[in-house]
Hints:
- The chain is mainly alpha-helical.
- The chain has one domain (2-73): Helix Hairpins (Orthogonal Bundle), CATH 1.10.287.
- The chain has three helices and two strands.
- It has helices at residues 2-10, 13-27, 34-61, and strands spanning 63-65, 71-73.
- Strands 1-2 form a two-stranded antiparallel sheet.
- β1 (63-65) and β2 (71-73) form a beta hairpin.
- The chain is rod-shaped.
- The two termini are 32 Å apart.
Amino acid sequence: MTGDNNMQEEKTMEEMFAGLEEMIGTMEQPDIPLEEAFLLYHKGIDMLKACNDRLDKIEKKMLVLDDEGELHEFE
Length: 75
C-alpha cells in the first residue's frame, strides 16, 4: 500500500475528495458485493487519513497576522 500513499501525495485535495465521492457512490449501489464495499471502505479511510495529513501540513505552514501586524503560526 505504500504505492497508494505516493499516488495520494501527488493528487490535489480536490482530486482526493472527488475520488472519495466516487467511492461513496459505488458503495451506495444496492448490488455491490460485500468484499468490494469492504475494500472501498478501507481505501476511503486511507484517503481520508492522507487528506488529514495534508491539511495538518498546510496548517503548520500558515501564518496569522495579528492586530499589531506581527506574524504568528496558525494554531
